[in-house]
Each structure stands twice: as structure tokens, then as C-alpha cells.
UniProtKB/TrEMBL annotation:
Record HAMAP family: RNase_P (MF_00227)
Major enzyme class: hydrolase
Species: Streptosporangium fragile
EC number: 3.1.26.5
Family per similarity comment: Belongs to the RnpA family.
Entry annotated with the keyword Cell cycle: no
Entry's transmembrane regions: none
Gene3D superfamilies named among the record's database cross-references: 3.30.230.10
Gene: rnpA
Taxon lineage: Bacteria, Bacillati, Actinomycetota, Actinomycetes, Streptosporangiales
Protein name stated in the entry: Ribonuclease P protein component
Protein purpose: RNaseP catalyzes the removal of the 5'-leader sequence from pre-tRNA to produce the mature 5'-terminus. It can also cleave other RNA substrates such as 4.5S RNA. The protein component plays an auxiliary but essential role in vivo by binding to the 5'-leader sequence and broadening the substrate specificity of the ribozyme.
Alphabetical list of PANTHER family matching this protein: RIBONUCLEASE P PROTEIN COMPONENT
Length: 124
């Protein structure tokens, strides 16, 4: 599981990540990424799994899978990061490997966008 200090619990943190942050979407999930102002706290991760995904058992299974997957990927983000992973309805029937692959693609997109743009040497 995720370390206790890395779990997002406050509604304002969810709102900041979703409203002010950037997002990257895949068929099974959407990841929202934001940064807290002037803080050196560890990155926080929150999960949103609505009833559209399925019943309580299915939603809890999807949340557990996503928490497990994020545990190994948390160190890729700088301190002060806010991440919200929102599951889409196809996540209910997705295998863990597919969730992992789509999570990696979404996280890579967000990290790539975060890097300062570098002027191309070849002029293109």
C-alpha cells in the first residue's frame, strides 16, 4: 500500500490537482497532476473511483490495484506534487497489467510536459 504520508485526504488537495493541474487520459484512467506552492512535503496521491465503474466490491478492487501500482511509481514525482488518479468505467474489467501500462503512459506524458522545453538544435 501507499505510505500513510503520501495519501491525499483533503478535498482542497483533490480540487487543486484536478482544477489547476494538468491531465493525461487513457481509456481506463485519467491522471491529474499539480504542484503545491512552496512546500517540501512528499508527493500526495488520491484516487477517484465513481459508481460508474461498478458496485462497491468492484470499485474497492480497482482502488486497491491503483494504490498498489502507484506505490512503485511515487518516487518519480518531485516533492510537493499532487496526483489524482481517476478510474474510468473500463477499469472495472481491465487486467492489472493493462492498468499498469496505461498508468505508465499517462504518468510519462505528465512528467514530459513538466520538463522545461528545450530549444531544438536543428531548428525544427
Amino acid at each position: 500500500m501507499l505510505p500513510s504520508g503520501s495519501r491525499m485526504r483533503r478535498g482542497e488537495e483533490f480540487a487543486d490537482a484536478v482544477r489547476k493541474g494538468r491531465r493525461a487520459g487513457r481509456p481506463t484512467l485519467v491522471v491529474h497532476f499539480g504542484m503545491r506552492e512552496e512546500t517540501d512535503e512528499p508527493a500526495l496521491v488520491g484516487f477517484v473511483v465513481s459508481r460508474a465503474v461498478g458496485g462497491a466490491v468492484v470499485r474497492n478492487r480497482v482502488k486497491r490495484q491503483l494504490r498498489h501500482l502507484m506505490r512503485d511509481r511515487l518516487d518519480r514525482f518531485p516533492r510537493g506534487s499532487l496526483l489524482v488518479v481517476r478510474a474510468n468505467p473500463p477499469a472495472a474489467s481491465a487486467r492489472s497489467e493493462r492498468l499498469a501500462a496505461e498508468l505508465d503512459v499517462a504518468l510519462d506524458r505528465l512528467l514530459r510536459r513538466r520538463e522545461p522545453s528545450q530549444a531544438r538544435v536543428d531548428g525544427r
